[in-house]
From TrEMBL:
It comes from the Bacteria. PANTHER family: AMINOGLYCOSIDE PHOSPHOTRANSFERASE DOMAIN-CONTAINING PROTEIN-RELATED, AMINOGLYCOSIDE PHOSPHOTRANSFERASE-RELATED-RELATED. This is Phosphotransferase. It comes from Streptomyces anthocyanicus. Coiled coil: none annotated.
Amino acid sequence: MDEVEVVVAHSERATLRVGDVFLKVDADQARIDAEIEAMSRVPVPTPQVLWHQPPVLAITALPGTTLGRLGGPSTGSPAGWAAAGAAIRKLHDAPLPPWRGRAGRSVAALAAELDDECASLVTNGVLPADLVTRNRRVAEAALRPWTAAFTHGDLQIAHVFVDGDEVTGIIDWSEAGQGDPLYDLATFTLGHEEHLGDVIAGYGADIDIDVIHAWWSLRSLLAVRWLSEHGFDPFAPGCEVDVLRSLM
């Protein structure tokens, strides 16, 4: 009998693996519905939905391996990173879904959230004031008008699988929807700046690097407290706090 592996678990959701099947448990039915709908629309490979019995979604495992992880070395080749960039471009060129995703928050709402989070980080002594202030200035470049694309919304490096130099699939679509395409590119390259050029080469478009840097700062500032409160360590080497320090 296959063992049950806890892939990730926190107060919002949990993912278990049993053999070649992943079981995603999420009390937010709208989030699961969005994930299923997104996977049915995107022009890139995704896991197959086996069954859905709220609050559980069962999906297949993907072949291949990820390109690496945040805080760890990249295991992928430059060609693999470029292939991921091409897959992301294919997603962004797809017809827009009718709903907004995580990357589609309004500039005003995002600015207000960022200001509140920065104030909390300083007031509670989570991060030094100069580190927060500098990265808040860097993040300003992300707060601009953008042309909506079909975005993944949480395109961490661990969510893209490759076999050699071919993308075999992308997982975790619960935050997908209309959004800023540079948010996806920044999320995917967070902590792996050395491969940003490879990704952009595969993506095949002119990219404003200042906006990518801005999203690195913004995403990291917004994530530090949540990660700490949900059992993750943003202070680990190569993770969010190191990203913020690198942008000083």
